[in-house]
Amino acid sequence: QTVVRELARAADRHGGTLRHQPARPQQADTGTRGSDSDSDSDSDSDSDDASIRAGAGFDLVSALTGADDLPGPAAMVLAEVDRRVGRGSLGTEGFVLARREGVTVLLADGPAGLLYGLFHLVRLGEAAFGAALPIDVHHPVSARRMLNHWDNIDTHPVMGQVERGYSGGSIFWRDGGLTGDLDRVRAYARLLASIGVNAVTVNNVNVHATEAHLLTDRLDDVAALAGVLRPYHVRVHLSVNFNSPVALGGLPTADPLDPGVRTWWAETTRRVYAAIPDFGGYVVKADSEGQPGPFGYGRTHAEGANTLAAALEPHGGVVHWRAFVYNHHQDWRDRSTDRARAAHDHFAPLDGHFAGNVVLQVKHGPIDFQTREPVSPVIAAMPGTHLAVELQVTQEYTGQQRHVCYLGPMWSEVLSFTPWGATRPTVAEVASGAAHGDERAEPGRRPSGQGGLVAVSNVGDDPFWTGHPLAQANLYAFGRLAWNPLLDPAALLDEWIELTFTPAATADPDLLRRTVHKVMDGSWQVYESYTAPLGVGFMVRPGSHYGPDVDGYEYTPWGTYHFADRDGIGVDRTRATGTGFTGQYPKPWSDVYESPASCPDELLLFFHHVPYTHVLHSGKTVVQHIYDTHFDGADRVALMRSSWARLGDAGLVDPDVDARVRERLDEQLRCAQEWRDQINTYFYRKSGIPDAHGRRIH
Ligand code: GCW
Predict the structure, then answer these.
(1) Is 164 in the pocket of ligand 1 (CB under 6 A)?
(2) Ligand 1 centroid from CA 164, angstroms
(3) 56, 72, 655, 674: which one has the fewest Cβ atoms less than 10 Å from its Cβ?
(4) CA neighbours within 13 Å on the CB side: how many for 49?
């Protein structure tokens, strides 16, 4: 019903009418004028038939493929779909869109398909109602496209309410309980559906005492959220604490092999499904940064994950088990421990030991969502395990939604990386299951793998949703890439600009489009250029992770070091003389990364310790590269700022959006200059090598 109402609205916006044909016709003729069903007083309990006006002509037909009595153009399209892909092959979420004889036809096997078709229609805009459109079959490449909210119910004294959140408080939780603003949650669900996201966790992976209770005595709150998300085909998942049997169940142990513990998980999970029949499953951060886990009981992560998986299995649920496991009490003097190695060391030996409904959730890089990292070697090491790749939409290490940093290009690079060197499979194909013999998942084919893409959400209760209005583009790009990783991030930005700013309705559409592109297109590289150089990572202020502090993490237990001295910088991760991390990659990458001669410039300091005078493939020395990129990066931010100001001055964007973006660009420029000066000064003082161009270094 929700979808039909939305479709009617879409038709109405184009001055058209909708005819909707459900699987089993509820009444003979279902032509409807969109506006008739547009009223907010429509409740889900209202029959849509009540608002359907018989007899009208129609411009849009939406129908389930099981419907009888389809009008002519829809029947033609269906016949062609049957011929091409076969009846029933659109699956739960696929859809077909075409325009024939002046009628736009949207067909799906089920309501979720219609929902996604609707939003595709919205993206097409006028084009959906213009010239004939060929039959276009759409499927998501991965079955699960999930956002993890690092939201707490309580407000944490240091982290705030949303851990690494830069958009205000949680949209789910307020004042120690469920939010009173479920309309906002409903709007969020619609937003998620519009980008193809179909799963969310509603609490932080660091599960604190209050939030642990969501699994048991605060389950009603989760059920309430699930009720709001459900009409938009978004399933709720929960982050759970591995020690729940002790903390919530009063058992003496949480040992995953203990029969009492297994029964506790089974019983608890049964109650979850009694309250939320379409519950998605659990997300677990175990033995990581202080969270409890199977190591505490002498068990492996496979044993831990499989116990939770067994509890979920009868109900069709899944466990997303995070591979982000490392020693955060490292002695910085100990050069043999390498945090980059940790996930592979822990998990690769367990390949083949995880249950079928366990999904190992792997951060895309081996360290921690830095601006530039190689792809995690775990992704190539687990052919017998379902994998999901985790991205960070929230900009913890990429400017915290105060800096413009469009991450679509970074993710696209990760997803199209080929871990075995040949042209295929790609990281995206590993994540969708296609690489390892799950039914082939690619655009236009129905996915069957368990894995997929997961990202840490950047949404909060901020009026612009994401703090920085331009950070919405990251959320948009994540959803669209999770649906189809082959989409071009520049084209996604086009889509987002059209949908967000409706340039055609302004006095100067071209200036609007051009400027937003100018500000956002290369913003990831700009951010990279004024922060930590050549893949070395961190150099952020400890704790907040915002702004520069070159040695902030250098002598800490966190395992994130750059090893700069008077002669050189970088981490030796080679097999020959370093930590051996390069050996975790299959060929050709194990060799490409091993030698500074073949290692890509942008990752040089991730893999090698080199002198400041080392000459890059670009022809520059490392230290001159550092100076040049840092001067250039700050200058480019100044240009981004003045470009945007011209747009704002021309009155082409909403004044509130304009004001917020300007305020953020002011801060970005201040901060970029701070980065430039601290980094350049630091390396000048360490190396004693002056800038070849004699620019000002403090
Ligand atoms: O990047 C780090 C963050 C932590 C986060 C952790 C994780 C939720 O600094 O705040 O904890 O990653 O991914 O678990």
Answers:
(1) yes
(2) 8
(3) 655
(4) 9
> Looking at domain 528-571+609-687, which CATH architecture does it have?
Alpha-Beta Complex (3.90)
Q: What pLDDT, in 10s, does the model give residues 623-671?
A: 999 999 999 999 999 999 999 999 999 999 999 999 999 999 999 999 9
Q: Which residues contact 382 (CB under 8 A, 6 or more apart)?
A: 347, 348, 351, 360
pLDDT of residue 10: 80
CA–CA gap between residue 34 and residue 30 (Å, rounded): 12
CATH topology for the 144-487 domain = TIM Barrel (3.20.20)
CATH architecture of the region 2-138: 2-Layer Sandwich (3.30)
Ligand 1 atom 1 nearest Cα = 368
Say what the ipTM of the complex is: 0.99
Task: Enumerate the CATH 3.20.20.80 domain ranges in the chain, comma separated.
Answer: 144-487
Longest CA span, the chain: 84
Q: What pLDDT shows up at residue 43?
A: 39
Distance CA 396, CA 534 (A): 19
The CA 553 to ligand 1 mean position distance, Å, reads: 15
**Ligand 1 pocket, 381 CB below 6 A?**
no
pTM above threshold 0.90: yes
**Nearest Cα residue to atom 11 of ligand 1:** 206
Residues of the chain with pLDDT under 70: 24-57, 436-449
Q: Are 473 and 450 in contact (CB under 8 A)?
A: no
Q: What is the dihedral of CA 400, 406, 408, 414, to 10 degrees?
A: -60
289 is catalytic: yes
